[in-house]
Protein 1
Amino acid sequence: MSNKSSPIGIFDSGLGGLTVFKAVRRLMPGEDIIYFGDTARVPYGTKSKEAVISFSKEIAEFLSARGVKLLVIACNTASSLALEEVRAITRVPVIGVIEPGARSALGATSNGRILVTGTTATVTSGAYRKVIKKLEPGAFVFEKACPLFVPLVEEGWCGKKVTKLVASEYLAPLRKRGFDTVILGCTHYPLIKKIIIKALGGRIKIVDSAQATALEVRADLGARDLLNPARRGRERYIASDAPDKFKALAFRLLSIKVKNVEVKRF
Ligand code: DGL
């Protein structure tokens, strides 16, 4: 049975989900959080649907066994391909990042022209387009896969010239298409947000799901009277490989000081 002091479980294929973790932490400082990064199998975005479902279910079972009161899939790829499958095997509520991001984009756009960037798997699934069109059938949605962004971020190359060149190659051709809003449809992309904005010519509203997802987490816990009133929650980090790299990059890219990273291999 969940109670107020049960932890929140958050997972991603790697480090990108820490952008969601940070937003959750900022909004709910009293919560205990277990973060799982599947660093042994990152990236998910180039894998098959079957593989992403099977990885996601394994992690969901692992976190459920640690007594989480809520599970956050802080990965657009896994949220696009595996949300229902994870929900089917999990007792606690499961929140993905697609719907919160889609709602934010609809709140941000003035002309209804929304660009979605994401991994190949997320874009191929059409998950954002489906949710946006359901909420606002008149919106125009264009989805663009940017598969090289995740390895560049996981390498820690967020400010490098090569990353700027890759961003420009993917996005500069879309500058004159009248989009006023872009969704960073991958939790790694906020880490190269400035580069993405620049590649798109500068004047565009940018939406990432982190804050919107954190708000949904708080709403869910509040509705179930499970918000932890503690002053300072604890954090536990688990990775499926390379804990030292996880620690170093969490600090370098997100200024998160991680004391210890446990390793869990599947
Ligand atoms: N950060 C994840 C996402 O939001 C996964 C990227 C990947 O592993 O390819 O899509």
Protein 2
Amino acid sequence: MRELIDRLAQEHTLTQQEFIDLLENRDAALDEYLFQRAAAVRQEVFGKQVYLRGLIEFTNYCKNDCYYCGIRRSNREAQRYRLGEGEILACCREGYGLGFRTFVLQGGEDPYFTTARMCALVETIKREFPDCAVTLSIGERPREDYQAMFDAGADRYLLRHETADDAHYRLLHPADMSLENRKRCLWDLKAIGYQVGCGMMVGSPGQTAAHLAEDLLFIRELEPQMVGIGPFIPQHSTPFAVKPAGTLEMTLFLLGLLRLMLPRLLLPATTALGTIHPQGRELGILAGANVCMPNLSPVSVRKKYALYDNKICTGDESAQCRGCLEARLASIGYEAVVGRGDHPDFI
Ligand code: 5AD
Ligand code: FES
């Protein structure tokens, strides 16, 4: 298996069967080998720097009904909230003071936040913070809408593809959603000029090594600037409440593979990874990740953005995720940096 990892580092891709072999035969020794190679590649491109983004979860209303997600529209238990423009700007001001130069506006697919409202919001943020990047993560929209928000000043867009396999996509989503449209969105975002992020959950119900290999090949083809991956974690009031969670080990392994496949990738150590293991995010960095996205949302709403159970950084202690993460990164020899943290191709 080591020769496959060597070849991935050299050629930046493998066949689907080779990816499957790696995923099905990984063990602790192979993990170590992969993480060392991935860390060396990341060191060459980014040194010991880890980029921070201030995450603002500004609405948990959602018109979609994805079976895995705690803020799906059918979840009557979800306590819905939506931040006003003033509250969002207050989060940005606080974040700016803490050193954040990227704000990630993430929300459910909330019809209240029309493209006109989003454009106005982006323009206001960019006017007050011209040295900051704005990342949007608000789901599927028509191409013209993506274009309008880009013209309003949005720099980046996160939209996980969730799975690159059509049948698996249909197992995770109701019939009114399609992988085809998800991919169309991602290609449109790329063509418009956004720095684009896709990604998938690791260990989602029904997922096989072949599905993950398809994910890797789709990512290879799309060549996004960012990839967000984290373990699937069940949420108690969804149809997948009793499904097993994804594992730390498989998530870390995929982070390592992604680093070798796309050396300049912006790759976050996600909150879900930090949720399934107390040192999940630190281990993610050591496996090849180079981004952390601490929560900047008002503490009063954080528990309500409950995509999955036991999410970290939602209690009173989390008012200061910035300092917490800085200390965590320092403890493993990494440095949280102030700056936009653009993909190297966009500097
Ligand atoms: N476990 C882990 N990740 C989840 N997401 C949604 N629900 C869950 C869950 N139960 C992820 C999806 C989505 C992102 C915002 O959060 O991948 O794209
Ligand atoms: Fe949020 Fe540590 S990063 S509490």
